């Protein structure tokens, strides 16, 4: 076994009263750890280390307050709830630079204390350190000439969890409180998963995320993006497709990959990250949970589901819109993280943006808007063929719940938005009415897709553009915060 541990030089913690300077120091420490591990790993692959353990650490930020001083009670973030030490490990400070400057700046302003920057005691797994270098790949266990875990740290799922956001984290007596909802290793895990599932780099994701469950929306999104690129005055700078193919000209070609990833993602970018990302999560609550589990670490400002649903009322017509104001959760994938007894409320800011977008796109308002949009409970089930069960089963429960629509993803996305403190919403489009003889058959589906997808997607885009103009402190309201929250969004 290795007899000594070799680490990068550590100059200790430094105090900063300037947020930008503090983040620059985080970047320096992070880069030093990654460079150290990359270099050591490359050397180890040619000459296995003899009696050494190679270790580098994540940088961290911490603050210490001694007062219960009140801050602006209207704010849901940017302050700690009680005196003491609060800290968090940090990864990819280059990716999160603007976010970190904002969050650290608020802490300094609200508590009038400096932040301290230095190395944590959390080892950085070698897999995450080399992730940014395409020339280096970590071999599977047994493929190298040495036992990888004897020399380098590897991902440790026992310390990579959602205890903080789930509200189950216990810091212990006199232990520091968490400063951020995710630790560095949890963020690194999700960044790697995002690249795998979506085939686009995390750098391309924007602050406003639309989820859909059909490829038809992707085609319309690309057409809209190209139209936006033709007018530089609107602030959109580029469009990124699967495989990190990025175009800046409206007529530029985009090569189609031979095989689409599990959750193809597309990004209409703005320079400040306030553009729109569209993720085709496909069908099912498992995909919806997977996508939101990982996108959440990017701390988006809102996500909205714009997919298809089964209309449950005979008064509905194909193409009608459903604005969810409640969710019947029978998706089952989040029951262990967010018990079903936890209410998942509608958020007024998102509801108003969606209803306003429907009115804007359809040119209807007031009572006339009710002709094609209903507000009510959306049920999400994990059984795609629920309608084949006896009516005393799911159909009876749907009626008792007053549900007006059913799908397989919306409640999952809303519940994970609630869990991760990401503002969420749902606007669905009725594509079939299985309880009333209108099944989703090929001919009917084709006509529906031709006439409704473009309008539905445009409503989602308009809603996101409306939310982009909303002050951040209003959008990230107190409704999603628990008793003892982290200071970071």
Detailed description of the structure:
Helix content is 33%, strand content 21%. The protein is α/β, with parallel strands linked by helices. The chain has two domains: 190 residues, 2-Layer Sandwich (amp nucleosidase, domain 1); 282 residues, Rossmann fold (3-Layer(aba) Sandwich), CATH 3.40.50. The strands form three sheets. Strands 2-6-4-5-7 form a five-stranded mixed beta sheet. A five-stranded mixed β-barrel has the order 14-17-16-15-18, surrounded by four helices. Strands 1-3 form a two-stranded parallel sheet. Helix 10 links the parallel strand 16 and strand 17. Helix 7 packs across helix 12. It starts with a strand and ends in a 14-residue tail after the last helix. The model has no long low-confidence stretch (mean pLDDT 89).
The largest pleated sheet is described as: 5 strands, mixed
The H-level CATH homologous superfamily of the largest domain, spelled out, is Nucleoside phosphorylase domain
Q: In the CATH hierarchy, what is the architecture of the largest domain at level 2?
A: 3-Layer(aba) Sandwich
The radius of gyration computed from the alpha-carbon positions, rounded to a whole number of angstroms, is 24 Å
Structural class: alpha/beta
Total DSSP E strands = 18
Give me some keywords for this one.
489 residues, alpha/beta, amp nucleosidase, domain 1, Rossmann fold, 2 domains, five-stranded mixed β-sheet, five-stranded mixed β-barrel, 18 strands, globular
């Amino acid at each position: 076994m290795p007899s000594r541990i070799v680490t990068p030089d550590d100059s200790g913690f430094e105090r900063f009263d300037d947020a930008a300077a503090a983040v620059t120091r985080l970047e320096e420490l992070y880069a030093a750890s990654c460079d150290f591990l990359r270099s050591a790993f490359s050397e180890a692959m040619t000459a296995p280390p003899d009696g050494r353990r190679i270790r580098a650490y994540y940088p961290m930020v911490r603050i210490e307050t001694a007062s219960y001083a009140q801050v602006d009670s209207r704010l849901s973030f940017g302050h700690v709830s009680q005196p003491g030490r609060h800290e968090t490990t940090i990864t990819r400070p280059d990716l999160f630079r603007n976010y970190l400057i904002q969050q650290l700046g608020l802490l300094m302003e609200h508590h009038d204390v400096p932040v301290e920057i230095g190395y944590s005691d959390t080892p950085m797994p070698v897999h995450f350190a080399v992730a940014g270098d395409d020339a280096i790949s970590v071999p599977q266990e047994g493929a190298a000439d040495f036992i990888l875990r004897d020399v380098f740290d590897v991902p440790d799922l026992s310390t990579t969890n959602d205890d903080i956001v789930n509200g189950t984290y216990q810091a212990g007596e006199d232990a520091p409180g968490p400063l951020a909802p995710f630790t560095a290793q949890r963020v690194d895990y999700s960044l790697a998963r995002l690249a795998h599932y979506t085939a686009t780099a995390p750098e391309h994701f924007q602050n406003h995320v639309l989820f859909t469950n059909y490829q038809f929306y992707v085609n319309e999104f690309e057409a809209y993006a190209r139209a936006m690129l033709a007018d530089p005055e609107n602030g959109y700078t580029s469009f990124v497709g699967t495989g990190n193919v990025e175009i800046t000209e409206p007529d530029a070609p985009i090569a189609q990959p031979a095989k689409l990833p599990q959750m193809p993602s597309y990004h209409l970018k703005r320079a400040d990250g306030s553009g729109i990302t569209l993720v085709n999560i496909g069908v099912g609550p498992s995909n919806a949970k997977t996508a939101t589990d990982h996108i959440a670490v990017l701390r988006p400002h809102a996500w909205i589901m714009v997919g298809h649903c089964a209309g449950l009322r005979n008064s509905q017509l194909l193409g009608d819109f459903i604005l969810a104001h409640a969710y019947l959760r029978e998706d089952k994938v989040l029951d262990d993280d967010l018990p079903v007894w936890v209410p998942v409320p509608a958020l007024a800011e998102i509801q108003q943006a969606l209803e306003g977008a429907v009115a804007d796109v359809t040119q209807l308002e007031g009572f006339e808007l009710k002709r094609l949009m209903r507000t009510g409970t959306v049920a999400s089930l994990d059984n795609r063929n629920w309608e084949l069960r006896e009516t005393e089963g799911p159909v009876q429960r749907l009626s008792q719940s007053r549900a007006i629509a059913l799908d397989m993803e919306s409640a999952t996305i809303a519940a994970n938005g609630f869990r991760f403190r990401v503002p969420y919403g749902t606007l669905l489009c009725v594509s079939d009415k299985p309880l009333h003889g209108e099944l989703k058959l090929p001919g009917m589906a084709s006509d529906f897709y031709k006439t409704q997808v473009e309008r539905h997607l445009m409503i989602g885009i308009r809603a996101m553009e409306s939310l982009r103009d909303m002050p951040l402190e209003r959008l990230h309201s107190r409704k999603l915060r628990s008793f003892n929250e982290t200071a970071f969004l």
